[in-house]
Amino acid sequence: MAQEAVNLLIVEDNAQHLELTLRALKRNNLSSNIAVAKDGAEALDFLFCRGRYADRCADEIPRLIILDLKLPKVDGMDVLREIKADERTCRIPVVILTTSREEKDLRESYRLGVNSFIVKPVDFNQFMQAVGQLGFYWLSLNEVSNKE
Amino acid sequence: MKPNKNQERDPLEQTVDSRHRYLEMLLDESPISIWVYDPETLEFLRVNRAAIENYGYSSREFAKMTLRDIRPPEDVELLDSYIAKSRGMERSVGYWRHQRKDGSIIHVELIAHSVKYDGRWARLVMALDVTERKQAEDALRESEHRLELFFGQSLDGFFFMMLDEPIRWDDSVDKDAVLDYVFTHQRITKVNEAMAQQYGGTAEDFLGLKPKDFYSHDLDYGKSVWREFFDTGRLHVETDERKLDGSQIWVEGDYICLYDDEGRITGHFGIQRDVTERRRALDSLQQYSKQKEILQAIDHSILNAQSPEEIAQAAMTRINDLIPCRRASVAVFDKEDNIARLIAIYAEHQTALGPGVEVPISAFGSGETLRAGKPIVVEKIEVQNPADSIVQTEGVMAYATLPLLAEGELIGVMNIGAETGEVFTDELLEIARTIAASLSISIHQSHLREAIEQHAEQLEKRVAERTAEIESFSYSVSHDLRTPLLTIDGFSQILLEDHAEALDDDGKRLLNIISDNTKKMGKLIDDLLRFSRLGHREIVLADVSLDQVVEAAWQDLQMSVVNRDIEFSKVRLGHTRGDFDMLKIVFVNLLSNAIKFTRYANNARIEVGVEEIEGQSTYFIKDNGVGFDMAYAAKLFGVFQRLHSGDDFDGTGVGLAIVSRIVQRHNGRVWAEGEKNKGATIYFTLSQSGVV
Questions:
Q1: Distances in whole angstroms, Cα of residue B628 to Cα of each of B104, B519, B597, B605
Q2: pLDDT, tens digit (0-9, with 9 covering 90-100), for B444-454
Q3: Which residues of chain B are within 8 Å of residue A23 when distances are taken between CB atoms?
Q4: Which part of chain B has CATH 3.30.450.40?
């Protein structure tokens, strides 16, 4: 059965946060065609069709990547760097969704070309709102440029 | 001669007779005393008129006298012995003293001849009175004697220096050629004892010496002195000459040219004094003041220098002006490695031993002597190590090593190399010691300064490390502490949503408490992070309008004054130097506190103002809220210090701590005044001069 093209790639190592994020997306009817990577290395394998994703069609690129910063193996910032440095992936919108409020993370992320930087609110209701809004904006409203 | 009446007489008789008369006439007319005496009896046989006049006796008296009677009594014996001796002599000559009738003594020159008188042998004596001549001669002799005495006894040197041949000295002659002649043909002909002593010799040593002997060290100089002298005829001058042993002598002299009748120079006369001492005193005074000047200049540049290398080079640059040397160097010791490193040198020539070269400490000789503060002087290098042999090939045959001591420790040496050890006089070693002392102090201070700078650098590095640690800590706090909070709140909500039917009201209430506290914890973490970031955020100083700051802060707080009736008043605060964003945080915190604590007040009032307290602009924010007990005023500005319960007023207790930290970083002061239930006033100042 041919898989549908992935709309959204979530890179999140924290299973509970992933669950909360997915719940928030589902609540906003944005839960179709989501792929999840548990660490930075898997995210890159997925995007560049390497390792267990070797068979994935490289032409199918997600409409959005939600990226946590503190990740095992390859750090979120390095993932962002590689995404934005590669011709094939540099046009995918990347939204950082992290608990970090660090100024230097913000600066570095924007320097590398991140599209949004959202601090996870501790308040779950606010979190639900934030994820819903970002998903709606990037997946529904935003027009993606796939090809040159 | 006229013929007279006796012409007819016998010619011979006539002849004899006329001769006799002539003689008689001659005798009587002669101005010289003449007499004839009997050699046996010494009786006068005949005396002439001159004798009678000269001696004061009449001819009758003479007739009764003998030769003895015209002698002073003491000369009679001498006369008798002379008579005995001269008997039979045809002619005799002599000087005698005679006594006149009046007793006075005259000196006479006598010529005696044997003659026939009245048919028997007698002596004819002619006595020339030479008393006057003799007196003149005696006077001259006396005068010469006195001059000789003066010459001999004088403390000034006297001399005559005469030319072998007189010379002409005018524009018609080649003066250079004449001087060449003079320098080899003018000789000392007379010299006194004082003069001989001045030059360290005897009068005999001097006689015959020529100008070239006195100016062998600098003939051109000597000739220039002579030229001036001959041009003017006299000269007063101080000259640099040489003693007989070759040592230096400064002579102050007056010289007078001697001329002959034709105006030619025959030589000169001189009076001179040894002024070497005076001259040396003057020279050493001048030298001393020059040395002092150079020493001061060296000291000055040492003081302006920073590193040991610069300090040492400042001294080396001028060392040769003070101590004539071939090379000089400053080395500092590294005791651990037992090496001395050259940090500055002076060298007249290319040298293989330049700055940066390292030699064993032992190359500088006895550490014990140096540690005792004494210099080591090596008059003749005996090669003991490679450094010795290098300096020797570069022309250094002797050296002096001076210790550089700091707090009793030998930190290095100053080394001075010369061609001969004679350079190292006590005086110059003292100068070297002075320089070494300045160097010691300055190099030591420089070392201390370097150590302090190094220490400061390390501290700074540690502070940077600590700051990085704190940053990574707050990063962890920010991320890792907040992560579970979201999970707790999220799953509490999910529980409420998905399992609402399984929970009774109390269960739901409990879950909400969990949720509330999670949010509170989140806010605490956020405030704590803000506070900690303030500590190491860089302050951006600029001219700041505090009125604009307050305006911006008030705008930020609009959300919190919705549905509130607050009388807000503000006077013009003016400008200050500070960080706009940080000062805004100050006002946001203070105003939000005021808004918060006036929540339950009737006619809530907030006033922002400024007043001059002790000459300093003091800003304040005053409210009529709940106020506080002054007993706790000091606790207000601590982190997490709260005077009101969380139930009455929300907040984390960080706001005033943040205010305090920002004010402190503006070199200001913050304090509070208040009364319970009557309101509070927070005052703060900002330094105009600077910030930390």
A1: 146, 27, 10, 16
A2: 888 888 889 99
A3: 490, 494
A4: 292-536
